[in-house]
Write the structure tokens for this entry.
Amino acid sequence: MMKVSVTTLPLVSLDVDLLLLLVTEGDAGITAENIGGEIGQALELTLSDFSGKAGESVVVYPAATRAHRVAFVGLGDSADDAEALREAAATGAALAKKTNGTTVALRIPDVALDSDVTGQALVEGFMLASYEFQRYKEEDERTHDRTERFVLHAGAHEQAVRRGAERGRVIAESTCTARDLVNMSPHEKTPTLLGKAVERHAKKNGFDVTVWDKAEIEHEKMGGLLAVNRGSPEPPAFIEMTWQPSKAANSRPVVLVGKGIVFDTGGLSLKPTKDSMDHMKADMAGGAAVIGTLEALARLDVPLYVVGLVPATDNRPGAFAYVPGDVLTMHSGKTVEVLNTDAEGRLILADALSYAKIYRPELVIDLATLTGAQVVALGSKVAAAMTNRGPIAALCEAGDQSGDLVHPMPMHAHYGDALRSHVADIKNIGNREAGSITAAKFLEHFVDYDWLHVDLAGPAFLQKAMPYRPEGGTGFGVRLLVEFLTRMASTRKR
């Protein structure tokens, strides 16, 4: 576990393997005069070959400093942007890996952002970029020279930086919880095992959890979840998490619903393996994001009443698997004609969304790796957001601030026409057009409250790493939800 601390000691006295200095493109603000000594002189000599462009870096070895190496890292021309700080810190983390830096310090740059926001962004960027999933590697193949201690040099705003750094540490660790769950081998996260993992996280971090077994799911008549589970040798689970602090600013909860398909073969509508089924351990990334969010809310003691629901099963073509043509009776009583067993995520989400009504929720947000159409429309960095009447603008603003970007898509009534069925109330797929939207229109049939839907199929799992997002599970959604819910709690307090 990486230790994070804040200091105001002189830069030259920091005994670290690597000292990081962030430099804005075209900015002469860092000089020998305001840095001092050989570090500043080294920068002045370096600037002839260093422009400060985003992603640019150079390592020097000043003699009169206790730091073994000093690296100058480019911020680009948008230094007053939290995402630019995260990506610059990620560049620093890559240098730390390259130089085997187990102790790293970073000087807080002079930017217009609040010091707590700056501290949070830098810690998030560095820690998230340092993440490695090594659970299944032999001991001699693991990376052992990880950064063990990360120090922020705070300057004049120590307390604000300290607050931001601690918040960034908790959010980064909670995001990595989600990443670990996504990256785990499917045999280690069956619905039962996933439920036990959440129970451990709840006990450790201070929120409540109840895990329903198959008999309880049958009693609740969750027809969608039970149908998807038919082909599996493993029973389903329904994970119900609660964070209800005594000082909560709301009496009616915000309910988070995460898709928990722990592995998706497509069922009898079998997926091709290459670039499809081979990544389907990630089909529970929405559920993982909800679990990580509950962890962060509890650790940060966010004064908001929040419930998390994760319906969990795998989707396999076993002997009793549900088939195209089946008509299911859902938890809500609505009937659904199944025309594609690979459109299973919406079925289990529909039951959870229907069940959420018992809470009389103020707002419900669901997160799901729901459609390939989302990736086609928005790519692998931006999730799609849709709503009936929920605060979608506030969600997008939280995305801009957190770095988990979301973009709104329309929900006009005519999109629902594609779901009309001749034999049931609705069918589970539309046509080729607007696939992400018709999936959301399906879910809309099961809500009668303010509701936001986030389709994160692209950003949840990457085949190629981005600055602080690794190949594999990214933990997308944790930072988005924590930012959104913290803002909601802060508004209520005022």
